[in-house]
Amino acid sequence: MSVNDWVTLGLIAFGVFFMLVADIGLNRMPDLYTRMHATSKATTLGITSLLLAAAVHFGTPEAITRSLLVVLFFFITAPVGTHVLARAAYFRKIPRWRGTVLDELAGHYDPETHELESYLESYEESVSEAGLQEHRHPAS
Amino acid sequence: MSQLLNGVLLILFLAMGLCFVRLLRGPSLADRVVALDQIAVHTVALATVYCIAVEQVVFLDVAMVAALLSFLGTIAFARYLEHGRDV
């Protein structure tokens, strides 16, 4: 076996290990959001490693181009898909794990239009309220 | 080399079986969608390892198309979850 083969096998082993970790996480994690956390990240790393193995193994321009294209595609779509799905699940009020301690989105989503209130908006409101009180205070 | 790659393909198939477990068990529809997405990623991984095993670059195109279709499927399911009627 040449150096090329060893590198290929190493990348494949790395990739398959992370795909397995993602699947174990998918089955062992307690609620939807932690499951998505397990699958999206570990899977992206695993599939990237496998595709790089293909690129190293063939070494031709066409194989390298295709592998890198699929890797780029995964880097773009995996976070987008996970975000869209988690957002939909949040609106459907899919139950969270009972150990969850923080929900920073609570109260910031409009339940009708599904729009997120921006941080700047609430910040400006609080500043203008504070300024108003300061202004009003000496008069009253 | 070929023997080892056959073993890798077997491991990937078993890992795909773990996704099917979640697909059957998943308490909510969103869990099943996550499992389906994961199964599609495993299809891409299998196509990639298979193209190395049989020395055919053409199978990378299969991986590319599978990745594209799985993304569209996930987005469609998410839209349905967010705006659709009760499931």
Description:
The complex is a heterodimer of chains A (140) and B (87). With 140 residues, chain A is mainly α. Chain A folds into two domains: 3-97; 104-140. In chain A, 75% of the residues lie in helices and 0% in strands. Chain A has helices at 3-28, 32-58, 61-91, 119-139. Chain B is mostly helical and 87 residues long. Chain B has one domain (2-83). Chain B has helices at residues 2-25, 29-53, 59-83. The chains are: A mainly alpha (140), B mainly alpha (87). At the A-B interface, helix 1, helix 2 and helix 3 of A face helix 1, helix 2 and helix 3 of B.
Count every helix of chain B, treating DSSP H or I runs of 4 or more residues as helices. 3
Kindly state the number of beta strands of chain A.
Answer: 0
Low-confidence stretches of chain B: none
H-E order of chain A: HHHH
Largest sheet of chain A: none
Strand content of chain A: under 5%
Which short descriptors sum up this protein?
heterodimer; A: 140 residues; mainly alpha; 2 domains; 4 helices; 75% helix; elongated; disordered C terminus; B: 87 residues; 3 helices; flat
